[in-house]
Amino acid sequence: MRIVLVGPPGAGKGTQAAYLAKNLAIPHISTGDLFRANISQGTELGLRAKGYMDAGQLVPDEVTIGMARDRMNQPDAENGFLLDGFPRNVAQAEALDEALQADGVKLDAVLDLEVPEDEVVKRIAGRRICRNDSSHVFHVTYSRPKQDGVCDVCGGELYQRDDDSEDTVRKRLEVYHTQTEPIIDYYKAQGLVVTISALGKVAEVTGRAMDALERSS
């Protein structure tokens, strides 16, 4: 299957993408991974992207699309892929359609993870990260440390990242509603959107997603 995963920040896209890609035996293609791989490998697109990033500028859509297209044409993606973080706007969605059409394939589904805005804020603003090891993550509601402000694993100080503050989260949501959410209507017009609730345990959401994708195929 060829799938685009969409949803607001805090919807659990990265977590669900990993599980779904494994269950469907297709590669998980994230924008962040594309940029890191191309830059570290020194590809032409990676060097172009780095030039824009070093100058504090946005990387043009054509560069991002070029990276995505190269990745989607690799052998492990022959039977499908799951795109996470791309496309981010309607222009990218249109360009993706053109690229897929040129390659003689098309999307099978757009999985929309639906989460109430207040829950998004609660999820992200409640995160606390260990200063000693950023992989040690806690939550003031869902995964409380035994001692407030102290990492259970190593005893390091827990803190809230600046981009996890409530004000920042709400600004990120505004950007999502303005730039990315319109692609849902774009894909609805093609009959591709499958919307599920992203509330509940990870396994429950994954099961819900797999059922929805199976019904849509």
From TrEMBL:
GO terms for biological process: AMP salvage. Its main location: cytoplasm. Residues 127-163 form the Adenylate kinase active site lid domain. This is Adenylate kinase. Catalyzes the reversible transfer of the terminal phosphate group between ATP and AMP. Plays an important role in cellular energy homeostasis and in adenine nucleotide metabolism. It catalyses: AMP + ATP = 2 ADP. AMP binds at T31, R36, Q57, L58, V59, G85, F86, P87, R88, Q92, R161, R172. GO terms for molecular function: AMP kinase activity; ATP binding. CDD domains: ADK (cd01428). Pathway: Purine metabolism; AMP biosynthesis via salvage pathway; AMP from ADP: step 1/1.
